[in-house]
Amino acid sequence: MRQKNSSQDEIIKTPPAPTLVKVKTAKDSKSLKEVVEYPAIISSDSEVTLSAKNSGIVVSANIDLGKFVSPGQNLVKIDDMGSNLTLGKNNFESVQVQQLEIALKQAKKSEDLADENYDDDKNESTKIARDIAKLQVKNAELSLLSAIDSRNIASPIAGQITEKFVSVGDLVSFGQPLAKITNTSLIKFQFYVEKEKLADLKIGQSLEILSEGEENIPAKIIRISPSADPTTKRFLIEAKPNQKITSPIGTILTAKIEIERKPGKESSFILPIPAVIISQNENYIFIAENEKARKINVSIEKIIGETAEIKADLAPEDKIILEGNKFLANDSLIKIED
Description:
Helix 1 (95-120) runs antiparallel to helix 2 (124-149). 17% of the residues lie in helices and 40% in strands. The model has no long low-confidence stretch (mean pLDDT 89). The longest helix has 26 residues, at 95-120. The protein folds into 3 domains: 19-31 and 264-336, conserved putative lor/sdh protein from methanococcus maripaludis s2 fold; 35-45 and 186-260, Elongation Factor Tu (Ef-tu), domain 3 (Beta Barrel); 48-180, CATH 2.40.50.100. With 338 residues, the protein is α+β, with helices and mostly antiparallel strands.
């Protein structure tokens, strides 16, 4: 007789391992803190570019790179070389300057004569003539001073020559840059941010400048550009350090900003975009409940940068799954990371 073997190998099914997830309560999802970093360059908060106020030849240029200058110090002299063979009273060959010198000399002679006439015969006519003569002297002095000042270019601030554009003998025209002066004691940081981050930044907001090998430098935002750079489409931000720094102008460091973003509506929540599953038919998130994932449908109010503002029916204590949600389904086993 043939006997049938009724014994069969048992098939042991190993239950699936729970998925590790990270969570955040709905109450804590009423705001989202984000840390962003941007390359920041050290620049001066006070600098000027000297420009020519008159056309002519540069006859002297005390603008060596690295030179420290004081306010009112004459740095560049511009003259009309070859206009005259001799220098005028104020050491210019310029025809205009010498003509104004002659005009002032004649005005003073007329003033002296008017004073004599008034001393000889004090009446209304000689008084008026004397007053007119004095006024003509003042006008001549102002005209001459203006002509000289337009050729003697002085520094308006204290600082250091950081750029030099001309040398002795160069022919310059009106408005041409001559040199750049930078006040190295007044420092600021400059960096650019994208449009999406602009709404999160405010004047007076604190940030940190990361410095290699040194302690971080605390700073505050002092200016936010209202218009974007035409090339990069980013907005210029300027920050002032709260302490003295030793790094030279032009050094590139890193600006670190902590941004806190809140939803526009009281009933909404703000989450990192990866926490939201976006499909053609629905948008949803998962919450952790009794060691299982539960699917919750949501509506997306708006997306700003890497965050999404959502509207959902959530209790404050509900635990929203932020990470580990990509391969979950409703009732998937989960384990919350500590």
